[in-house]
Amino acid sequence: MKKYELATVLRVTLEEEERAKTIKKIEDYIVRFGGNVTQIDDSFGKKKLAYEIQKMREGFYYFIQFETENADCPNELEAHIRIMEEVIRYLCIKQEE
Fold first, then answer.
1. How far apart are CA 11 and CA 87, in angstroms?
2. What is the pLDDT of residue 96?
3. Exposed/middle/buried for residue 10 (C-beta within 10 Å: 0-12, 13-18, 19+)
4. Coil, helix or strand for 43?
């Protein structure tokens, strides 16, 4: 199994319930494409962005670690996250083993 980490920044205007729905939706995508979520880190919370993105100066940071044997999982995941309005930035990286 290959391990990955997905960093996402969600809009600061989202309520807690909407953020939870968005993270659940991302988890569902990971599972749909053959992955297994191992950890979700939301300890960073709301942080100031390094630069303004879409007229926003802050965002909510989430780090999702998952593993998969499907090599297409990260690409499929990014394709779906790219069109989510709630997500203003994302980055999926492969972790060293």
1. 6
2. 83
3. buried
4. strand
Torsion angle, CA of 88/46/33/81, rounded to 10 degrees?
-10
Cβ-in-10-Å burial (0-12, 13-18, 19+) of 62 comes to: buried
Report pTM.
0.91
pLDDT tens-digit map of 29-70: 999 999 999 999 999 999 999 999 989 999 999 999 999 999
Identify the burial level of 66 via C-beta atoms within 10 angstroms of its C-beta, where 0-12 means exposed, 13-18 middle and 19 or more buried: buried
* Separation of alpha carbons 2 and 96, rounded Å: 9
Q: What is the 3-state secondary structure (H, E, C) of 44-93?
A: EEEEEEEEEECCEEEEEEEEEEEEECCCCHHHHHHHHHCCCCCEEEEEEE
Q: Under 8 Å CB-to-CB from 48, ≥6 apart: which residues? A: 57, 58
Q: Which two tokens stand for residue 20?
A: 């939870």
